Amino acid sequence: MTSVATTAGADAVGRRGAALVVLCFVQFMLVLDDNVVSVALPSMRDDLGLGAAGLAWVVNAYFLAFGGLLLLFGRMADLLGRRRVFLTGVALFGAASLVCGLAQEPWQLVAGRFVQGAGSAMASPAALALIALLFPGSAERARAFGIWGGIAALGGTMGLVISGALTGLASWRWIFLINLPVALAAVVLLPRLVPESRAGRAARLDVPGAVLGTGALVALVYGLLRAGESSWGDATAAGPLVLAVVLAVAFVAVEARAAEPLVPLSFLSFRFRAVANGATLLFSAAMYAMAFLLMVHLQTVLGYRPLAAGLAYLPYGAGILAGMWLSSRAVARLGMRPALVMSFLITAAGLLLLSGVAPDDGYASGVLPGMLVTSIGCGLSLPALTVAALTGTTEENAGLGSAVLSSVQQIGGAVGVAVLVALATRRRDGLTVEGSQYAATEGFSFALVVAAVLVALGAAVIAALLGRARPPEGTPDV
């Protein structure tokens, strides 16, 4: 009897491990498509005759759908079944990738990118919720999120490398077609590895809340994207941002009165998660902007071609993986709050080091040291932030918690890119008399100093507030 129980336990552990591998590979694919098109845009323009606006929408259509629909699909995963929503999202993403890879007209590519974003918005929070439920213990959950975050970070780094290689050696179409085997494998394998899970209490989807919440997120993401392309005072940016505020206020009013709200206000006001999500917002704003600005610096100041610039990011991915490996150990030894404060401060120090680069500094002497310190701090931070942001989530709301975290990351990233790139551009334009490389480097450095301040502010928020937020039993001590 004991041997049978031991064998059954080993089989369960093996299935959980295999499920984690499948979920991580899907996340690698989803993150890859966040930035995989950036290197291939000139080839797409030449093949399909895309104009400047069309090229922008090849990128923005994905982010608009992904950022706008996360909350809706995260809650749907809780109500309809997380495995079902995940598999539907992966299948939709795969089908959209095929459409993009075979596109013959600009509108087909843009439409495919929008559907890709919608599929990603279904799959990503459902996958994170499945991992949270598969690994309920605090230590094993931290390790699982560390693996998950490492694979995701690797996808973000490798996207530029893979895109450059496939576009240069074959065709830009393969950056989409390469998704098909991963999507097919996930659809076939996951039902054998993960049981269905949904909220135990029957509930209906809050349609008014869904419409207002999704509308607010879509308007916010669109306004931020437009602000990044034009300016904050432009009507095409200011209008959607004002609309987002109006819809958000209406959303809060409706949710306060709804019997079955899309996002219960008590869920948002749970202090431990609220502090973690607030810190995530600041951290995402800094890190998304850093990644964008560093890629611009590598290509415009150092003169790297796209593939070489992508390869220059490989040490960044290695540093993140090293930080992820250390993260669960730091949390176990120091506790959640000290580990997060330490990791944020390391990240801020790395950003300050990176901001000290001079116009005539090369990659090894100027960029690499700050990049490595920043990446290690980032790797230390991400798993612990994810664990903290999903603290207290249950069978009832794991999908919602994952969707809120993903939405915060996307919104923080969009705000960071829009604001910090604008600050860098303004600083550069004010120094053009000094020479283009000097001015560009000064703009880059100034924006990274602001990014470091944001991360340091996140550390202060965690130090001051996270310890007062009492986590449920089983969470690492703060």
Describe this structure in words.
The structure is a single chain. The chain is mainly alpha-helical and 478 residues long. It has helices spanning 2-35, 37-48, 52-80, 82-102, 106-134, 138-169, 174-177, 179-193, 207-229, 235-257, 265-269, 271-300, 306-312, 314-334, 336-355, 363-389, 398-429, 436-465. The two termini are 41 Å apart. Residues 1-10 and 469-478 have low confidence and may be disordered. The chain has 18 helices and no strands. The protein is globular and about 60 Å long.
Please tally the helical runs, counting DSSP H or I stretches of 4 or more residues.
Answer: 18
Helix content percent band: over 70%
How would the global form be characterised? globular
Major sheet: none
Radius of gyration: 22 Å
Q: Estimate what percentage of residues fall within beta strands.
A: under 5%
Structural class: mainly alpha
Order of helices and strands: HHHHHHHHHHHHHHHHHH
**DSSP E strands, number:** 0
Mean pLDDT: 81
Distance linking N and C termini: 41 Å
**Would you identify the regions where 5 or more consecutive residues have pLDDT less than 50?**
1-10, 469-478
